[in-house]
Amino acid sequence: MSKEEKRKVELQAVAAKFRLLCNMRIEELEDRIPGITNLLAKDALLKEIDALHELSDRANEEAEHLIEEYYRNKNGNT
Questions:
Q1: Distance, CA of 23 to CA of 15 (rounded, Å)
Q2: Radius of gyration, CA atoms only, the chain
Q3: What are the b/e assignments for 17-45, b being 16+ CB within 10 Å?
């Protein structure tokens, strides 16, 4: 496997994990919605859910940054 192919596989794996984590958190927050009666608290929760959806949609971009940071830290170039 070439270096480019390996990087692509890493990117896909990290992006998939990132989406999974975002979706798990979204589900947790959505489960809390019915119990919230304060409109400001509910609005804040819905905004957090929207932000997580946006992050999830940008998973590949975020994964690229995470991988780059990992290799910088691994190589001691912080």
A1: 12
A2: 17
A3: ebbeebeeebeeeeeeeeeeeeeeeeeeb
The conformation of residue 35, written as its DSSP 8-state character, comes to G
Q: For the whole prediction, is pTM greater than 0.70?
A: yes
Position of tokens 């692509």? Answer: 8
Rounded Cα–Cα distance for residues 64 and 46 (Å): 27
Q: Which amino acid is at 21?
A: L
| Torsion of Cα atoms, 29 then 45 then 42 then 26, to 10° | -30
Instruction: Tell me how far apart the alpha carbons of residues 30 and 49 are, in angstroms, rounded to a whole number.
Output: 8
pLDDT score at 78? 52
